[in-house]
Amino acid sequence: MSFQYGAVGEAGLAFFGKVSSVACHELKNILAIINENNGLLEDTVFMAQKSGAIEPERLGRVCEGIAKQIHRADELLRQVSRFAHSVDQFYGAIDLEDCCRLVVFLARRLTAAKKLTVEVEAASGAARLAGGNPFLVENLVWTALLEAMQFCENGGTLRLVPGERNGQPMVAFCGLNRLNEDFCSVSPLAELLSAASASWEIHGSEQRCELIFTGHEG
Amino acid sequence: MVANVLLIDDETDFLAVMAERMAARGLRVSTAASARNGLAQAEEGDFDVIVLDLAMPEMDGVEALRRLKEKKPEIEVILLTGHASVKQGIEAMKLGALDLLEKPADMNILAAKIEAIQAKKMMG
Lengths: 218, 124
Hints:
The complex is a heterodimer of chains A (about 220) and B (about 120). Chain A is an alpha+beta fold and about 220 residues long.
C-alpha cells in the first residue's frame, strides 16, 4: 500500500489539507455562533439585573441556538474523524455509497460555492470494493466530484449513483448538463485512476461520467 | 444619529444573533446571507458601516470589498474572519477596509468601532 501513497503523495496531501482547512473554518464559524449566543445570554442577564424581568422566550431561543450548533459540530467532527481514520486503514472492503456520502459531506462548502445540490442515491447492485485503500478511493471520488462539478450549471443538481457495470463497482456522476461529446480530459484524475486501478468514462450525450473500478470485482 | 449597519455573512444563524445583539445596542441593522445580496443592498441602501465576512462560498469578502469600494467608496467596512492570513489582511486594508476582526469577535469591541466610525462621520 505504501506504493499507492507514493504515487499520489502530493494529491493526497493536498486533499487531506483541503478537507482539514474547510473543517477548521466551519468549526470557527460554529464557535462564533456559540460565542454570540453566549453574548446574548450576557445581554439578557444584564437587562434582567436592571429591570428584574427575565424573558423566557429569548432564553429558549438561545438554548435552541446553542444546541443546534453543538449538534452541527458533533456531526462535523464525527465525519472528519471517520475521514482521518481512513488514512490509518491501509486496506479493506470499501462501500462506495458510504464513501460517496462521506466525500459529499466533506465537500459541502465547495459545492455550496456553486449553489449546487449534490445527492447520493442508494447503491444499486454490488457497489463495493472487496479490497482497496480507503483514503485513495476517497481521494479519487473527491477529485472526480470536483471534476464533475465543472460541468454542472450553478444552482443545478449533481447526482452520484453508486452501482456496478459488467460486474465492476462504479460511481456514475449524473446531471452534468454542460458536458459535451468532445470533452475528453482526464488529467486531474490520471495518477489517482492509475493507482486505484480505475477508469473515468465520459458519456456526453447522457450528461454523465462514470468512475469505474476496472481492477476490482464487485 | 443611529448608525445604519449592514451585516454580510453566509452563516444565517450568526447573522440572526449578531443582528439582535447589535440592535440591543441601538444600532439599525440589516442582514445579507451572501455577498451578492449584500452588494445589492449596499447599492440601494444608505449604510454607514458594513460588517463583512471574509470567507463566503459564492464570492469571498475581498472580492465583495473590491466591488463595494468601486461603487460606494464612502462606506466603511469592517471585516470579520475565521482564519485571516496576513496576506488577506493586507489585501483587505489596501482595498480600503477599516479593520479586520477575528471570529469569535467581541461584540463590545465591534460596537465601539462602529460608534467611533459614526462619531467621526458626524464631526466631519
